[in-house]
TrEMBL record:
Chief location bin: cytoplasm
Pfam families, A to Z: CN_hydrolase
Presence of the UniProt keyword Hydrolase in the record: yes
Taxonomic path: Eukaryota, Fungi, Dikarya, Ascomycota, Saccharomycotina
Source organism, top-level taxon: Eukaryota
Family: Belongs to the carbon-nitrogen hydrolase superfamily. NIT1/NIT2 family.
Cellular component GO terms held in the UniProt record: cytoplasm
Protein's name in the database: Nit2p
UniProt-listed Gene3D superfamilies: Carbon-nitrogen hydrolase
The organism of origin for this protein: Saccharomyces arboricola (strain H-6 / AS 2.3317 / CBS 10644)
Length: 307
């Protein structure tokens, strides 16, 4: 059950190829979330970095473990400093393992980490559905060129704000994952994302509200926002390339929001503001249970027909 008066924060930011700079922003936002009495703060997909291309991503991913270790230390330091606990959900990358390389798979992993207030990683969910699309009048993106897909549906996490089901970005378009997480006990679903502006304008809010109504869960949607700085002079020098020709424009939709189990938006960022933003909401147990009791979808589902 969701504990009454438990408070969530979601962070919207604009990650770059500069991991040290990104980490500073993340730390500041965790501190602000603690000050505003959040119990869990949710960050977007790829909070550690965004890259120019698959080769650049593999280069940056080698530094991601250090990013994660420094983040874990920062969480415990901030908890001690403020005498208040906070857990962190954050999207990052991981480099391929030795076994991956033996199997000639050098693609990185797009993962969502859940780190508790003691700095311990309780879950490492690897993105199942990869964004391979050619958007009309928009970008052509082939995530599978640089990212290896996950193979495991994540367990439900008991968190200070309720039972959490984890997903990432493009996963939101596949309702069977959300329904599976609900059947496993989820009360909250999170979709940390870096939606393109074209797909975001068309479907971001629609998909979030649909998943909330489908599952009668709170839906947490922290997103990357704005034009990302993908310049990396050190890497570009190693590759003997120039930034203007190798740093394509990458812009994310933002519009981060928290949606209730009846499909209503209960908190959202100001779309007219730029720069990092935090929004907050109290997740109400009575409201969640009321929706589920009045319309008992799980009990009425025809599992005898649909498998």
């Amino acid at each position: 059950m969701i504990n009454e008066c438990k408070r969530v924060a979601i962070a919207q930011l604009c990650s770059s190829a500069d991991m040290a700079s990104n980490l500073k922003v993340v730390k500041k936002m965790i501190f602000k979330a603690i000050q505003d009495k959040a119990d869990v703060v949710f960050f977007p997909e790829a909070s550690d970095y965004l890259s120019q291309n698959p080769l650049h991503s593999r280069y940056l991913a080698q530094k991601s473990p250090q990013f994660i270790q420094e983040l874990q230390s920062s969480i415990t330091d901030l908890v001690k400093q403020t005498s208040r606990n906070i857990d962190v959900s954050i999207g990052v990358h991981l480099p391929p393992t030795e076994q991956d390389l033996l199997e000639e798979n050098d693609r990185v992993k797009n993962v969502l980490l859940y780190i508790n207030h003691e700095g311990k990683i309780l879950q490492e969910y690897q993105k199942l559905h990869l964004f391979d699309v050619d958007v009309p009048n928009g970008p052509i993106l082939k995530e599978s060129k640089s990212v290896q897909p996950g193979k495991v549906i994540p367990d439900i996490i008991d968190t200070p704000v309720g039972k959490l089901g984890s997903a990432i970005c493009y996963d939101i378009r596949f309702p069977e994952l959300s329904l599976k997480l609900r059947s496993m006990g989820a009360e909250i679903l999170c979709f940390p994302s870096a939606f393109t502006t074209k797909t975001g304008e068309a479907h971001w809010e629609l998909l979030g509200r649909a998943r909330a109504v489908d599952t009668q869960c709170y839906v947490i949607m922290p997103g990357q926002e704005g034009v990302h700085d993908l310049c990396d002079p050190k890497w570009e020098k190693q590759q003997d390339v120039s930034a203007p020709t190798k740093s394509p424009l990458r812009e994310s939709w933002g519009h981060s929001m928290i949606i209730g189990p009846w499909g209503e938006i209960i908190a959202q960022v100001d779309p007219n503001r730029t720069g990092p933003q935090l929004i907050f909401a109290n997740l109400d147990q009575e409201s969640l249970q009321g929706v589920r009791n009045r319309m008992p979808l799980c009990k009425q589902r025809r599992d005898d027909l649909f498998h």
